[in-house]
Amino acid sequence: MDEIGRVVSVGDRIARVYGLNEIQAGEIVEFASGVKGIALNLENENVGIVVFGSDTAIKEGDLVKLTGSIVDVPVGKAMLGRVVNGLGVPIDGRGALSDHERRRVEVKAPGIIERKSVHEPMQTGLKAVDSLVPIGRGQQELIIGDRQIGKTAIAIDTILNQKQLNSMATSESETLYCVYVAIGQKRSTVAQLVQILSEANALEYSILVAATASDPAPLQFLAPYSGCAMGEYFRDNGMYALIIYDDLSK
């Protein structure tokens, strides 16, 4: 089994690698410098590897080895109250995650036959939304508008309002857990959000996935998939989850 390849060219955080004949789509590889990447473009002659981090330490001719693992992220209740990056690595300075599972970021979505129809409302706590454009559990909703009109405020208020709604839940299956995915935002903005949720005791049922503007583009690309995998854990265990992507235009 060929597990070692060599870098043919590198630039713009994309490395072309020759010799990885057994590589899988989405597999994590490790360069000689210790930098990791993900295989996204499989061709006959070489493989396109998206580099996590700076590619300045990667040179032509460097060795590349397979890890045998597809991109996965930690999931579970141990994630609640934590801030993680696009790979699920904690960035809040509170140490490693406690007991948790791991789940692949890309899995086949349930078919239409397996899904229930949207029949139950997801209360946002905002009268204008709940009365005029109610959102159902299992539904996708686009919040669109010009800059600085309060799109993010709607999302944050919805998370905060779940505090009261969750307090009235009689069982765990009625609790709504929130996953907020910040894509391409400033670190200061994410820090402010963490403070707001912390002061309102809303972090206890929330997970923050932050791929900020200073993070490499591959991590920003993976963040929505990672957040979705974390939310799917609650879905697959008989619970509810609200996932907010802010925003997908970055």
TrEMBL record:
<dbReference type="InterPro" id="IPR036121">
    <property type="entry name" value="ATPase_F1/V1/A1_a/bsu_N_sf"/>
</dbReference>
<keyword id="KW-0066">ATP synthesis</keyword>
<keyword id="KW-0472">Membrane</keyword>
<feature type="domain" description="ATPase F1/V1/A1 complex alpha/beta subunit nucleotide-binding">
    <location>
        <begin position="125"/>
        <end position="250"/>
    </location>
</feature>
<dbReference type="InterPro" id="IPR005294">
    <property type="entry name" value="ATP_synth_F1_asu"/>
</dbReference>
<dbReference type="Pfam" id="PF00006">
    <property type="entry name" value="ATP-synt_ab"/>
</dbReference>
<keyword id="KW-0375">Hydrogen ion transport</keyword>
<keyword id="KW-0139">CF(1)</keyword>
<dbReference type="GO" id="GO:0005743">
    <property type="term" value="C:mitochondrial inner membrane"/>
</dbReference>
<dbReference type="InterPro" id="IPR023366">
    <property type="entry name" value="ATP_synth_asu-like_sf"/>
</dbReference>
<dbReference type="GO" id="GO:0045259">
    <property type="term" value="C:proton-transporting ATP synthase complex"/>
</dbReference>
<feature type="domain" description="ATPase F1/V1/A1 complex alpha/beta subunit N-terminal">
    <location>
        <begin position="3"/>
        <end position="68"/>
    </location>
</feature>
<dbReference type="GO" id="GO:0043531">
    <property type="term" value="F:ADP binding"/>
</dbReference>
<keyword id="KW-0067">ATP-binding</keyword>
<dbReference type="GO" id="GO:0005524">
    <property type="term" value="F:ATP binding"/>
</dbReference>
<comment type="similarity">
    <text>Belongs to the ATPase alpha/beta chains family.</text>
</comment>
<dbReference type="Pfam" id="PF02874">
    <property type="entry name" value="ATP-synt_ab_N"/>
</dbReference>
<keyword id="KW-0547">Nucleotide-binding</keyword>
<keyword id="KW-0406">Ion transport</keyword>
<dbReference type="InterPro" id="IPR004100">
    <property type="entry name" value="ATPase_F1/V1/A1_a/bsu_N"/>
</dbReference>
<dbReference type="InterPro" id="IPR027417">
    <property type="entry name" value="P-loop_NTPase"/>
</dbReference>
<protein>
    <recommendedName>
        <fullName>ATP synthase subunit alpha, mitochondrial</fullName>
    </recommendedName>
</protein>
<keyword id="KW-0813">Transport</keyword>
<dbReference type="GO" id="GO:0046933">
    <property type="term" value="F:proton-transporting ATP synthase activity, rotational mechanism"/>
</dbReference>
<dbReference type="InterPro" id="IPR000194">
    <property type="entry name" value="ATPase_F1/V1/A1_a/bsu_nucl-bd"/>
</dbReference>
